[in-house]
Amino acid sequence: MPEPLRISKIKHLEKNKRRRDFFTKDASTIAKRILGDYLVMKNKDSFLVGRIVETESYLGIIDDASHAWGRKITERNRVMYAPGGVIYVYFIYGKYWCFNIIVSEKENPQAVLIRALEPLEGIEIMKKNRGVSELKKLTNGPCRWTQAFGIDKRFLGKSIESRDLFISLGPYKSFEIVHTKRIGIDYATHSKDSPLRFYIRGNEFISKG
């Protein structure tokens, strides 16, 4: 069971914020390196904090599961061509948001999808946002955690090191990373079986797909 973080601890997280230049590496590298880090959101007078436990990498123009496959550019995905370190959110099924971080260099539209978090702080707010009381179901999926955190179109194109939303370096990395294929991309012909999904082995908050 995760322990709540004290406000003094959250101030420490702010000091260890990942800077935008960290996100200029390729998607697979970043997807693995942010496992165990904290996603932190300031919500008025409170904080929402989750430990990143599951990610997927999308490799841009060479990846037929990516929104930028073949250098496709639309109004929705235009932000993917920005330099690494900005947020890409998109709407699915008419009611859910998925949250990605654009990585790599400008015009190389790679992205990391954050699939699941381990909830640490602001849990009562998350429960209210989700309408769910069971802790394990709060943030164990890409649409569940965004709903718990109140993610929506407002975050599209924002910096991942903003005052209100950022990633902080995790205090320890003593875990095994599982590599497996991504979820929900059966439309991809060439890359659907590529091992580009990463999660912390044994963590109870990974998605169940």
> Taking all residues together, what is the mean pLDDT?
92
What fold name goes in the CATH topology slot? Answer: 3-methyladenine DNA Glycosylase, Chain A
Distance between the termini: 22 Å
CATH architecture: Roll
Instruction: Give helix and strand order, one letter per element, not per position.
Output: HHEEEEEHHEEE
Number of domains: 1
The assigned structural class equals: alpha+beta
CATH uppermost class: Alpha Beta
CATH superfamily: Methylpurine-DNA glycosylase (MPG)
| Fraction of residues in helix | 10-25%
Overall number of strands: 8
Shape: globular
Description of the molecule:
The protein has 209 residues and is α+β, with helices and mostly antiparallel strands. It has a single domain (7-200), classed as Roll (3-methyladenine DNA Glycosylase, Chain A). It has 4 helices and 8 strands, in the order ααβββββααβββ. It has helices spanning 7-15, 27-33, 123-130, 142-149; strands spanning 38-43, 46-58, 87-92, 96-103, 110-121, 165-168, 177-180, 197-200. Strands 1, 2, 3, 4, 5, 6, 7 and 8 form an 8-stranded antiparallel sheet that branches. Helix 3 crosses helix 4 (142-149). The longest helix has 9 residues, at 7-15. The radius of gyration is 16 Å and the shape is globular. The two termini are 22 Å apart. The model has no long low-confidence stretch (mean pLDDT 92).
